[in-house]
Amino acid sequence: MILFLMIILIVSAVFLIIVILMQQGKGQEMGAVFGGSSQTVFGASGAGSFLTKATAIIAIFFMGSAFLISYLSARQQSPIAIKSYIKKTVKPSPLLVKHGSYKHSSKTPGGQEKAVGKK
Fold this sequence. Notes:
Layout: H1 2-22, H2 30-34, H3 48-76, E1 103-107, E2 113-117
Antiparallel strand pairs: 1-2
């Protein structure tokens, strides 16, 4: 189903681009696009009403298929449970030692070592 809707989405997007590019600009006619012919390609009334209706119909198909794809794909995914990401128990590592029971040295800014912890 989603594959079919994706095909409709892509085809409607291509047709929508074509129909929008065929529409008249401000002050230009279809003759400028097709090399000198007048607007008799779509009849005496011109292409205005036909292309406007075609744009609206194709846009409805485009938006409808986009919404259906998003709705169907959201229904197919299972919701994320946050409880599965929370660890139930934290076991202490056997390598951990109580604070202060080990000896460790740190260097001072002058490069001298200074003992930290129990001696």
